[in-house]
Amino acid sequence: DKWMFSRLNSLVKKMTEELENLHPHLAIRELQNFWLNDFSRGYIQFVRERLSAEDKEAKFVVNEVYLSLLELLAPFCPFITESVWQELRKKAIVKEESVHLRKWPISAPKKIDKTLEKRMENTLKIIEMGLAERDKVKIGLRWPLAKATIYVKGIENYEILEDIIKNQLNVKKVEFKHSRDKGTELAVELDITQTTELESEGYARETSRIVQDFRKKLGL
To answer: Which one, out of 36, 96, 204, 208, has a CA that is 20 to 30 A from the CA of 141?
Structure first.
């Protein structure tokens, strides 16, 4: 949650600077990158279970980010954002008559944590690398693995992100080690050894998926 608010405030700061310097094309690139990678492929994936459980803090973050993104997008896509805004008005989620009557967002410097942003940027890369490694050995994400070894320069305080990596890569254990290769900042190594327990859990997940798919087909 802290990372998401940090990235949002960094985005507001950067977009404001680019627009004041008459660089709208650079401003919209920043917005696109945040919306697609940090928010959609990152944060939303991390908090899916929390959102399903009606976690108030996660819902608050999503709401704040979503409304801010509409404000930031409004000068570039005025009609689309207005249409979305009016739908939100019907549901009493927003009060203003128009998104274009909202004030431009102001960045809060105290909420920006560049160190955390860098760690989360690396975490997203680690997850991407881990998924690519799974792809190479043809092991689907539903099948749990014993361990992922992460080689990174400056491993301090990465432990706070361990649960995110474990959940996203579906591994039982994450081990951080200093990167030995001077030219490599990040590397991921997966232990693909299968045990009876891991196989049993994998089959259980796959069975559950098949049953859920069949329920959908039956309309249940």
So the answer is: 36
Residue in 68, 141, 66, 58 with CA at minimum distance from that of residue 103: 68
> Tens of pLDDT along 35-61?
999 999 999 999 999 999 999 999 999
Bridge partners (DSSP) of residue 174 are 148
Q: Would you state the structure tokens that stand for residue 19, as one six-digit string?
A: 């627009």
- 108/128 Cα distance (integer angstroms): 30
Select from 72, 78, 90 the least CA-distant residue to 32: 72
Helices 78-90 and 56-73 pack at an angle, to 10 degrees, of: 140
Identify whether the C-beta of residue 71 lies closer than 8 Å to the C-beta of residue 100.
no
pLDDT in tens, 93-105: 999 999 999 999 9
- The CA distance from 48 to 41, in Å, is 11
